[in-house]
UniProtKB/TrEMBL annotation:
Domain UBP-type: 37-138
Gene Ontology MF terms: zinc ion binding
Gene3D superfamilies on file: Zinc/RING finger domain, C3HC4 (zinc finger) (3.30.40.10)
Identification of the protein by name: Regulator of Vps4 activity in the MVB pathway protein
Top-level taxon in the UniProt lineage: Eukaryota
SMART domains reported for this sequence: ZnF_UBP
A UniProt-annotated Pfam family: zf-UBP
Region (Disordered): 140-162
Length: 162
């Protein structure tokens, strides 16, 4: 009597999507330039980086007034590749390859053709800090490698309700 209803067998097909977004994870497209934490040319750094010219020192060649580079090998101050390329020229003539930007205090290695992380590389940290103090008048904020001392600066003279 009862007809056997047409067996409806619905097989759920599980579609395994292949995940091929490795590029999204590893690609460096967002304009973020990674600074290296090591460089083979640190031996050429000047041995006296405790005393460096001030950030507003003009280019030693063309007197360009600002945003120059400091050669960390001989402490010459030279303009950028966007001005008269004197730092680049200096590198080609002397092979002094490590320079610190007085515009944003980044450190560039011409030989590695990359930025160097001056807060991680031990040899660069002191000069970065010195330059930072010269530029901003205070020490750079330290990365949390040690517990920061929380200074008790709670407002002590909060006006109590009268
Ligand atoms: Zn110049
Ligand atoms: Zn130099
Ligand atoms: Zn290098």
């Amino acid at each position: 009597m009862a007809d056997q209803a047409g067996a409806s067998s619905s097989h759920l097909k599980i579609i395994l999507e292949e995940e091929d977004d490795y590029d999204l994870i590893y690609g460096a497209e967002s304009g973020w330039v990674e600074a290296r934490t090591q460089c083979d040319h640190l031996a050429s750094l000047s041995s006296d980086l405790a005393h460096i010219p001030t950030p507003n020192t003009p280019c030693n060649r063309c007197q360009h007034p600002s945003e120059n580079w400091l050669c960390l090998c001989c402490k010459d101050v030279l303009c950028s590749r966007f001005v008269n390329k004197h730092m680049l020229e200096h590198y080609k003539q002397t092979t002094h390859c490590i320079a610190l930007s007085y515009s944003d205090l980044s450190v560039w290695c011409f030989a590695c053709d990359t930025y160097l992380d001056a807060q991680v590389i031990r040899q660069l940290r002191p000069v970065h800090e010195t330059a930072y103090i010269l530029k901003f008048g205070e020490a750079p904020p330290h990365r949390s490698e040690e517990c920061p001392q929380i200074e008790d600066k709670q407002a002590k003279d909060m006006p109590s309700g009268s």
